[in-house]
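Ticket 4471: requesting a sanity check on a complex prediction with guanosine-5'-diphosphate. Repro inputs:
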Amino acid sequence: MGGTYIASNAPVPEGTIVVERGVSAQEFAPKLNRSAADVIRFLMSNGEMVTATMTLSDEQMELFALEIGAELLLVEAGQQEELELQAMFDDSDDDIEELQEVRAPIVTIMGHVDHGKTTLLDKIRNANVVAGEAGGITQHIGAYQVEIPTGKITFLDTPGHAAFTKMRARGAQVTDIVVLMVAADDGVMPQTIEAINHAKAADVPIIVAINKIDKENADVQRTLSQLSEQELVAESWGGDTIMVEMSAQQNLGVDDLLEQLLVVAELEELTANPTGRAKGAVLEANLDTGRGPVATILIDKGTLKVGDPIVAGGAWGRVRAMIDSTGKQVKEAGPSTPVQVLGLSSVPNAGDEFRVAPDEKTARTVGEAREQRQRLTAQRGDARVQRGVKLEDIFSQIQAGEVATLNLVLKADVQGSLEAVTESLRRLERDTVKLAFVHRAVGGVTENDIQLAAATNATIIGFNVRPDRKARDMADAEHVEIRTYEIIYKLLEDIERAMVGLLAPEFEEVVTGEAEVREVFKVPKIGSIAGCQVRSGVITRGSKVRFIREGVIIWKGAINSLRRFKDDVREVREGFECGIGLTDFQDLKGGDLIETFEEREIARV
Ligand code: GDP
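Returned C-alpha cells:
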C-alpha cells in the first residue's frame, strides 16, 4: 500500500493507533512508521500545503491514515493519559449512600452590571461572617460561607457569569443555586438575560432578587412582567419562581433571601459524603510573594486535612496550612467549604479539579505528568506564533483581505481573571482576526514581558495590573504598546474597536440610536427584515450601523430600509417599533442589537 508520494514502505503498525488531536506532521508521522516528509508530500498531492511543524487537522490525519491503511483513533490532547492518571486515585468509597450528609448550597449571584450584586455580597458577608484572627478583617478568597440559624450557605465571591461560565467550560460545576439580581428601577437588561441563559444551560435553579425597591422609580410590576417574558414567573403570578423583593443597600429582605436559599437547597437535596478523601475544584489561585502558590478551593466531598497529599491540575504537594474565609487557620474542611490552601508546587488554574491522592508519591507522579504535558502543549503553541500586527494596524490588514494575527501578552491579577479574560478574548476571534497569546501569566507587567512583546510585535494587555517604571521606560524605548484595564468589558470593547477599525484616530464616533431585534421576517426578494424596538435615540434610514450579538459586533454596514407598519419612514424614535432591513446582512436573530452611529472627523491639531 502507499501512494506514490509516500516514499517509505515500512510496515504500518498493527491495531488501532491512538493519536492526540492538534499534533504536527513531525509528531504524527513516526506513530505511523512514516516520515514527516511522507505526510507533507502526500497532503501536497491533495492540494494541502503543510509544513513539518504546522498543526494537522483531523481530516488531514485521517486522509493519510486511510492512504496507508492504518487504523487511527483521534483523541483530545491528554485524554488517554489523563484517564490513566485518574485511575491512580482510588475513590471507591465516594458515593456510599449511607454516608451522605446534607451540605451547604453553593450560590452564585448573577445579573446586570450595577444591579447590586457586590452590595449584596458585602452585606451578607458583613452581617454573618465573624471576623477572624487576621486583625478582624475578613479576607476575599473567592468564596465565603455564612451561617444563619437554619443552616449554612456558601457564596462565590466573584459575581457575574464570566467566572461561572469559565468554571463550567472546565467541567467544574460549582454552583447549586443562582441568585439573579434585577434592579427594579432598571428592569431586565441584556446581562440579566445572559445570566438567565447561563443558569438554564447549567440546569441550576434560579431565585430572583428584585433589588433597589427603596428607589423612587422602582417598578416591581414591570420587572415581574419582563421576567415572565423570560419564563421566570413569580409565585404570585401563578408561576414557580421564588422572587424576593429587597434592597441590598438598606438591608431590607436580605434575611428573607437567605431563608429562601435554604428552602431551595432542601428541595434540591444537596448531600455529600464528608468522610474519605476530599475532592473539589480550584476557584482561583495566585503566587504570593511570602507564601508561595496559594489556591482557593471549594470542597465537593470528603474532608480535607492539613498534611493531606493533593493534586490540583498540574500542581501537587502536601497541604501545609488552610485558611478559611474569615482569615482563620483551620485543620480540616468539609463539603461546600471554601479554603485557601498553601503547600502546592505551582499555581493551578481556576476550574482545575483537585483531589487528595492516596500518598505523596502518587500526587507527585500525577502532577508532574500533567505539568509536563501542559509544558509541551505550551511549547507547541509558541512555535505557532507568527509575527503579529499591531493593534492599530489590524483593521487595515483585515480590509486588505488578509488574516490578521494579533499577538498578545496578557498579564492579570489572579489566575481566575487571567482565565476569564483569555476566554473572553478568544470569543472575539473570527475568520479574519486570530489572537495568539505569546505569554499569559499572573503578575505585574515586567521588563521580561516587554522584551517578549518587542520580539513578537505583540501588544501587552494588563488586567488589574500595571507596569512598573522600568517596564514603562523600556516599553517607550521599544515602542511596545501597553494597555491596562480594570473592567473586562472596556478591554474587550477596545479590542473589538480595533477589529472594526474604530481605533483609527481620525474619527470620533457618536452613538445615535439603539434598537433591539424582536422578530425576524423573511420577505421574498428583499431578504430578512428585523422587527425591532428602538430602545434609545433615533434610528435613521441610511445611517451606519453595528450589529451586535451578545456584546460582540458581528457586522458593520448601513440601514437599507426603515419601515413603520407598511410605510417607509426616514426615522423612528425611542420607544417605537419598526422594521429594519440591512444591506448585505441576513443573519439576524431575536435579541440582537442594532446600534446606529455617526462618525465625526476630529479636527487635527
Ligand atoms: P454590581 O455591579 O451588580 O455589583 O452593583 P453594585 O453592588 O456595585 O451596585 C451598584 C450601585 O447601586 C452602587 O452605587 C450601590 O450602592 C447601588 N445599590 C445597590 N443596591 C441598592 C439598593 O438596594 N438600593 C439603592 N438605592 N441602591 C443600591
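Notes from triage: The chain has a mean pLDDT of 82. Leaving this open until the requester confirms.
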